[in-house]
Every structure is written in C-alpha cells, then in structure tokens.
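User: Can you write out an input/output pair for a complex, sequences first and structure second?

Assistant: Here is one pair. Inputs:
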Amino acid sequence: MYIGIVVGSVVATRKNDDLVGKKLLIVQKVNKEGEKLDSIEIAVDSVGAGTGEYVIVTNGESAGYVFGTSTSSIDSAIVAIVDSVEING
Amino acid sequence: MYIGIVVGSVVATRKNDDLVGKKLLIVQKVNKEGEKLDSIEIAVDSVGAGTGEYVIVTNGESAGYVFGTSTSSIDSAIVAIVDSVEING
Amino acid sequence: MYIGIVVGSVVATRKNDDLVGKKLLIVQKVNKEGEKLDSIEIAVDSVGAGTGEYVIVTNGESAGYVFGTSTSSIDSAIVAIVDSVEING
Amino acid sequence: MYIGIVVGSVVATRKNDDLVGKKLLIVQKVNKEGEKLDSIEIAVDSVGAGTGEYVIVTNGESAGYVFGTSTSSIDSAIVAIVDSVEING
Amino acid sequence: MYIGIVVGSVVATRKNDDLVGKKLLIVQKVNKEGEKLDSIEIAVDSVGAGTGEYVIVTNGESAGYVFGTSTSSIDSAIVAIVDSVEING
C-alpha cells in the first residue's frame, strides 16, 4: 500500500460493469516528506475521499476484495484517509 | 489502474487461446498533464477503444476477470474509455 | 519480499475494516549496504516491529494471508524483524 | 502484458518441477519504436518462440494459467509471437 | 521471473510462521551481461542455492505455490539454479 494525494477525478461512460457507480479518483504518490512524485494512478474510492486528501491505496486482487468480490476487474482502491503521519527516521 | 492513450495495435497469429478473437492494443501511459511517458503495454480491449483514445487499464488477475474467467492468461485489460479528466491539485 | 527500515507510522480513522486495529507502519526500502532508498510503503505490522528496526515486507495477496484471510484488502505486510544480514558478494 | 524480443535462453538442472521440460527464454523489453530497453526477464515459452522473435509476455498468476494450472510457480510466460505492430500515435 | 545472484542471507527470529525453517537469501538482479543492478530482494530458497550462484526468482502468489500452499505469506522464491546462459541478441 502507498500514500498519495487525491489530485482529481475521471469521468468514463463506456466502462466495465465493476466501475459503474464508483468514484474514479486520480491519486498522485507522495514521498516521505509528503512531496508529490511523478507517478499517478486511478484508484476507486471506498472511504469517501476527496480532492486534496492524503489517502492509502491498495493494489492487485486486494483492491477487488475491498468491494466484496473476489472476481473484480478493479486493481486499485483507496482504503483509508490519512489523519496524521509520524516520521522519525 | 492507470490512464494511457491507445497508440497502436499488435497482430499475432501464434498465440494463447485466451487471446484469440481479442483486440491487442498498445497503450502508452500518460502523466497528470496527459503527456506520454516512455512505458507502453499490450492491453486487451473490452470496451471498444480505438487509437488516440484515453483509456483506463487494469492489471494482474483483475484483467482476467474482465473476460469472465478466473484462470485467464490475460494480465492487462482496457476497462474504460475516458470522457474527461478533472485535475485540481 | 524486500528489506526496509521502519521510519514512521500513519493514523487513519476512516478506513477499510481490514485495517481496523492494525498498526500501519511506514517502511523505507534499503539497498545492499543498508542505505535508505527513496521508495516508501505503508505496511501492516504482524510481528511487533517498531521505528528504526530493519524488517522484511511481503506484497500482494501474500500479505493478506499473513492475517489469515484470502480476501483481505491488505497488500503489504511486515513478516519479519531482521536480526542480522550477511553480505558476501 | 508487454512486448519484448527473445535474446537468449537459460539452462538450469536444479529447478522447481513446474519448470521441468519447459523452455526458459530471456526476453528483453522493447519500447514503442521496437528499441531494446535494459530490462530483461526469464519467461517460459508456450507458443514455440525463438531467438530474435518479438513476443508478448504475461506475468503473475496469469502466467501459471497458460500451463493449465492455478498453482504454478511460473510467474512469466510468452503467450504470443508478434506478426506485426501498427503504431499511429 | 528474473535472473539474479545470491549475495548474502538474512537471519530473523521474530517472523511469520511461513518463514520458519526457510533460508532467506538476498538476491541481486543482474542484467543481460550478468552485471549486478541496484535492486535486491529477499527470496526464500527452494533448490539449495548458495552465495555467488546465479538463480531464477519467481514472485507473487506463484512463489507461495513453490512451497505447496496457496495461502503463503511468501511472495518471492528461488526456483532454479542457473547452469548456463546463452545470449545471442
């Protein structure tokens, strides 16, 4: 899982059924100092995240399980909204 | 899942049965500004995508589930055609 | 699996049920010489690891199995605390 | 899945049973222009590929399914030999 | 799967049960010329590999299957010891 910041969203009409009714958010990875990295990803929201919030994203089949199915075409899901980060190392 | 742009296609006669009858599209990843990155991938179309369209790609077993099977040799599938992207961060 | 060093932790109230009651630690990858690399990850602790300790992290569905379930939304788990490393090559 | 070119092969006597009787080919990834990238991988052939041929490689559990088993230790398989590539973007 | 060279080992007392009794080896990836790359990984040995040997490593759930279980927390396993490599491309 990684930490990223929600920087936008995507609208798509022609899409797989698993994505219908889901919020497709654009998440930009951040480093230890909270600075944005180049890498972005489309993650399906599952916790009510919004733009500007720091979130935790899970990938692979683990993301499908977030939505209660083991045969999901979703491979990236937001699983937490970060309240605070403690760095001491 | 990531956003990319369809930049071409591949023809292959000698191939795994799971790929028979499928459109093998070349997708080039894009960054937050929509600019092409170096990385390309072969993704199986599932939504009628064409060259020049921005698409969302899913990977791993999640891609196999797109085609209704949990034992697919496909590990990369186009699952949406992007209508619009909103970036505010 | 990779070696990293625990450099902090994350607090998140709004999160997936699988993360409730779990320690979300920030792990920074290290190279062969034990030097920190840029890449960080959020890994769920399963062995009582603490800040400053070198740990081994597993990813993907393998991480879900650490917590005894094959449908976990967790894709990254700490599975060992390193006592010593021997390098001779 | 990605496109690569077969640049060699590996011989290994002491190996996992799943690899017995399989051709272990070295595949070097290529970019959109067909130029070789640094990254190489060992992929198990499933379509009769040979050195110098452009191929499509699948990864993860999807690679295991190529050989008809859902518990394979193989995580990388050649699933097609490329006849032609059309790039227009 | 990738080729790497065993460059060391790790000792860990506090660890997941799946790792008990297993050899945790440090594998450094190599490129086509056999030169070491920066990337290292911890892989569980399954073929009696030793320091200085070139090996093939598999990742993900495929690594768990090497040890005969489909719910293993191991996501990286050595599945072959390389006898020889032929490069002609």
